[in-house]
Amino acid sequence: MNFEAMTDQAVAAEIGQRIDQLRLERNLTQQQLADAVGLSRVSYARLVAGQAKLKNVIAVLRALDQLPLVENFVPAVVFSPMEQLKMKGKQRQRASGSRIGSKNEPNAGDPAGLDW
Questions:
Q1: Is CATH 1.10.260.40 the right assignment for the domain spanning 3-73?
Q2: What percent of the chain is modeled with pLDDT above 90?
Q3: Could you tell me which of 45, 56, 52, 43 has the C-alpha nearest to residue 20?
Q4: Which residues contact 42 (CB under 8 A, 6 or more apart)?
Q5: Contact 60, 24 (CB under 8 A)
Q6: What gap in Å lies between CA 11 and CA 9, rounded to an integer?
């Protein structure tokens, strides 16, 4: 499946449908699974439609014994050894972002050219 070509809502709905397929493979009703995680059946139906909170998706995956899927969803990122040496053991807290212009140019960082 080409997620790159899909809208965010379509990707969310596809994830919901895949979770629902896991539920069906375990022969559980929507109500049974919703009760197991403390959701209403309507909230579960929203999850399947791609309109769920992330914590509810995690709870459902946990109830279906599929929490390891989260590791594949967002794998842990480790900095390269050279980057770790540069940082001297410190953990990176934020990104520097991109700079539009130099600090010597007035309003260089403001794309609209406003000086406020």
A1: yes
A2: 56
A3: 45
A4: none
A5: no
A6: 5
Report the distance separating Cα 113 and Cα 116, nearest Å.
Answer: 9
The residues, ordered by sequence, that sit 6+ positions from 39 with a Cβ below 8 Å of its Cβ are 47, 56, 59, 60
Contact 34, 40 (CB under 8 A): yes
What are the tens digits of pLDDT across the range 19-76? Answer: 999 999 999 999 999 999 999 999 999 999 999 999 999 999 999 999 999 888 888 8
CA dist., res. 93 & res. 80, Å (int): 16
Task: Give me the helix-helix angle, 41-48 and 8-25, nearest 10°.
Answer: 120
Element (H, E) at 16: helix 8-25
CB under 8 A, 24+ apart: contacts of 34-37: 36/63, 37/62, 37/63
Residue 1 CA to residue 40 CA, distance in Å, equals 30
Give the chain's length. 116
Q: Which residue has the higher pLDDT, 9 or 115?
A: 9
